Amino acid sequence: MTMNREGRPTTPDEVGSTAPDTFTGNRALRIEEPVIFDVGTAEATGVDLPEPDGAVKSRLGGLERSEPLDLPGLAEPEAMRHYVRLSQKNYAIDMGLYPLGSCTMKHNPRLNEKMARLPGFADVHPLQPVSTVPGALELIAECARWLCVSTGMEAVAMSPKAGAHGELCGMMAIKAAHAAHGENRSIVLVPESAHGTNPATAALLGYKVVAIPAREDGTVDPAAVIERLSDDVAGIMLTNPNTCGLFERDIVEIAKAVHEAGAYFYCDGANLNAILGKARPGDLGVDCMHINLHKTFSTPHGGGGPGAGPVVLSERLKAFAPLPYVKMTAAGPELIETPADAEADGTKPFGRMTAFHGQMGMFVRAMTYMLSHGADGLRQASEDAVLNANYVRAGLQDVMSLPFGERPYMHEVLFDDSFLDDTGVSTLDFAKAMIDEGFHPMTMYFPLVVHGAMLIEPTESESKASLDLFVATLRDLVMRAKRGEVDRFKGAPWYAPRRRLDETAAARHPVLKWTPPEPQTADAAE
Fold first, then answer.
1. Boundaries of each Aminotransferase class V domain copy (predicted)?
2. 111 burial class (0-12, 13-18, 19+ CB within 10 angstroms)?
3. Mind listing the pLDDT tens digit for each residue in 193-244?
4. Among 45, 26, 152, which residue's Cα sits nearest to residue 89?
5. Torsion of CA 443, 446, 450, 453, to 10 degrees
6. Tell me: the pLDDT tens digits for 1-43?
């Protein structure tokens, strides 16, 4: 049985082992797990439901299913085993260092999880009467206060569900502010090193995106921004530290020029992990910035979500924050959730980003992280993130190539693939070989301003011992590549549960639906 029917073979062992075959295809604790449709049957179920008494009138208006739902049924032990085995095939932050640059895959403290599971937080429902949830509202307000104070901003929208959703919120606030001034500006400036969601967000709102090239040192030149400013520019979307892992040292000058042109400064907050407690974006001239709670404040990332992307707003934009928001009064927290409430409060929300206030569980986790660290601990986390990244840089700079020289980096360090020239090993080959060594690959081929980019972010979670092993492993792989051990890389990963796929074919001809295998005939079996 194969996991996919496109691309290269995916059988678990092509390593040339002399060990005997097994009847099951398993290798001791390495279980060959079939697709769930191959395990379960539609007739089986782990739940007994009584047949309904009498005729049940359908409410589907003639759209009832005409055939049984073809879902695999499993007994409870089978379902548990299936998903536990699948989880053991995945890399995770609880297994090892996760060096994905610009993703901040840091440790998620179990204290956060314990607090989020307290009944008063875990059981709260968005449709409860407001009078029954003063504690939840106070926690949201306190979390918002910490975010405002730490970033030097005046207000925060807590409802966006992720970074890109936060970008949309911030740019919608900018658009609303221009509209309130009777302006209809149509251009947004975006550096070439920006996250891909930045130009996508601007385009979604109908703006024309004008790119700003990076100068040779990887940062944005204020002269390049000034050259592109006009009365039609609504704002700039800039990441600081930027996606090359470098602090934009001219950010104050850029902000001043943008403001003088009547535009707004949106800062992508994906890399706040590097400067929290060290520099406040509001002091640098930023008007709005989203904050990925999973990146900076340790809430679960990706499949461990859900996400949360609060957006902090400056004095110039705070009146346009979306509904709902919490206002602290002498009588306690007050939820502002209707246009009439907002008008009475003197604000002009552009609307609503989502049905309710946001991800309560993520607010609890982030607040727990803040309180357990304190202001000094949050500052140290940023210092350690920068220290760890530069420790990796120092350990690899003599064998891997740095496109912007051996200068200090922020929380992530960027290499390019020129050290692999004439080896026959590609960036992708190198990354796949890391899997065999027990490491998740770094971010590859991004940012686009560097050819064959390899972006590494160790985060503050890692100890010196784990970084030493990581650096030593990459040094060994570099030496193997330069010794001409090309086959070691071209076949990688050798030891993963599934071998390397033909990713081009998989993207062009994806297999999105399971289909039962053709039944074997007696002749075919022979």
1. 173-302
2. middle
3. 888 899 999 999 999 999 999 999 999 999 999 999 999 999 999 999 999 9
4. 26
5. 20
6. 334 444 444 444 555 557 788 888 888 888 888 888 888 887 7
What are the residues facing 15 on neighbouring strands? none
User: What is the second-level CATH architecture of the domain 111-368?
Assistant: 3-Layer(aba) Sandwich (3.40)
How many residues can be counted in the chain? Answer: 526
DSSP H helices, 2-133, are 36-39, 76-87, 110-116, 119-122
Does residue 523 register a pLDDT over 80? no
Distance from C-alpha of 151 to C-alpha of 426, rounded to nearest angstrom: 41
Q: How far apart are CA 207 and CA 22, in angstroms?
A: 60
Helix 464-482 / helix 427-436 crossing angle, nearest 10 deg: 130
Closest CA to 37 of 526, 525, 511, 493: 511
Task: Name the β-bridge partners of 313.
Answer: 155, 288
CATH of the domain spanning 383-508: 3.90.1150.10
Quick check: 310 and 147 in contact, CB under 8 A? yes
Whether 454 contacts 470, CB under 8 Å: no
Residue with tokens 């032990």: 77
User: CA 413, CA 260: separation in Å to the nearest integer?
Assistant: 34
Q: Look at residues 420, 417, 153, 116 and name the one whose alpha carbon lies nearest to residue 280.
A: 153
Q: Please say whether the beta carbons of 135 and 301 come within 8 A.
A: no
96 HSE (CA, 13 A, CB side): 14
Distances (CA, A) of 326 to 118, 124, 180, 313, 329: 22, 16, 23, 14, 10
- Contact call for residues 207 and 200 (beta carbons, < 8 A): no
CA separation for the pair 283, 275 (Å, rounded): 12
Cβ proximity of 440 and 96 under 8 Å: yes
Residue 6 CB contacts under 8 Å (≥ 6 apart), including other chains: 501, 502, 505, 506, 509, 510, 511
* SS3 (DSSP) at 189: strand
Peptide bond preceding 324 in cis form (omega within 30 of 0): yes
DSSP 8-state class, residue 352: B
Output the CA torsion 17→21→22→26 (10° steps): 30
Q: What does the DSSP assignment read for 391-427?
A: HHHHHHTTTSB-TT-S---SSSEEEBGGGGTTTT--H
Average pLDDT, whole number, for the chain? 90
Measured torsion, CA atoms of residues 22, 23, 27, 30, in degrees rounded to the nearest 10: 170
| Residues 84, 283: Cα–Cα separation, whole Å | 48
Closest among 522, 499, 454, 346 to 100, alpha carbons compared? 454
Task: Give Cβ neighbours of residue 326 (< 8 Å, ≥ 6 apart).
Answer: 137, 140, 141, 144, 158, 333, 334, 335, 336, 357
